[in-house]
């Protein structure tokens, strides 16, 4: 079995009973729990203008996700749509205690994490978030001291109780090693682009390192092999397994991440697709051999969607 599963025991408490066997919560290293299937307001819902005016399309997309049972909601200040996420939460009528809300700081030059965090809370209209992340390490330009200072500021947010868990996103092993040298509280998660064509197998096996350190993996762009890199070596495997289980290739792609103990985010705005995933994905599970087969075929192709300017062509970290 892929090393991504090692050391993590999903906890089904608090989940819908029909999902409890296959899409449980994952217990984090701080004792908190995160739903393993979430809805991301990422670049698909990126707001590029009119920041002072609510974009009703974004509000409705997030509200559609909540209405269809996606209570793990992942946002970021960089997306420009925290106000829309907050409005969707308010309109949904779902009790705050049932939601798991994530947002992220971009670490703007000359700005403290405290300032960024307060701004995010105000836009969201919330008193706290369940998970607060540093969006990327690349602003630090390789400076260990800067990474360590920002993490200390994140720890202060965690100490205040306004973020129940804290973590990072897009960190490579060297960024994590620098952060952990001085950390009082280890990151609870590292949110990364993850799919069969980007398994982070170079540079010291990122997933293995995260498991060793007890840091959970959250995957974004998990369906890249289907949505952006069609015609690759994974396609026939997805198709065969979809026929076997009576599902779609997209269901198989999500299941591949979940069956490795990886928290998985989707950004679809199509209600039918969101509803179908919630209904079908809990009903089947890939075998360890099938998980490994997809992983091995995926290694035959490399494809990165995001942060490409930070990597050389072919860099699989």
How would you summarize the topology of this molecule?
Blueprint: E1 10-11, E2 25-27, E3 33-35, E4 37-40, H1 56-67, E5 72-74, H2 82-92, E6 100-105, H3 113-124, E7 129-134, H4 144-160, E8 163-169, H5 173-182, E9 189-193, H6 206-213, E10 216-220, H7 224-227, H8 235-245, H9 249-258, E11 263-266, H10 271-280, H11 288-298
Parallel strand pairs: 4-5, 4-11, 5-6, 6-7, 7-8, 8-9, 9-10, 10-11
Antiparallel strand pairs: 1-2, 2-3
Helix pairs in contact: 1-2, 2-3, 4-5, 8-9
Describe it:
The chain has 317 residues and is α/β, with parallel strands linked by helices. The chain has a single domain, classed as NADP-dependent oxidoreductase domain (TIM Barrel, Alpha-Beta Barrel). It has 11 helices and 11 strands. It has helices at 56-67, 82-92, 113-124, 144-160, 173-182, 206-213, 224-227, 235-245, 249-258, 271-280, 288-298, and strands spanning 10-11, 25-27, 33-35, 37-40, 72-74, 100-105, 129-134, 163-169, 189-193, 216-220, 263-266. The strands form 2 sheets. It has an 8-stranded parallel beta barrel with strand order 4-5-6-7-8-9-10-11, surrounded by 5 helices. A 3-stranded antiparallel beta sheet has the order 1-2-3, with no helix packed on it. α1 (56-67) links the parallel β4 and β5 (72-74). α4 crosses α5 (173-182). The longest helix has 17 residues, at 144-160. It is globular, with a radius of gyration of 18 Å. Residues 40-296 form the NADP-dependent oxidoreductase domain. Substrate binds at residue 135. This is NADP-dependent oxidoreductase domain-containing protein.
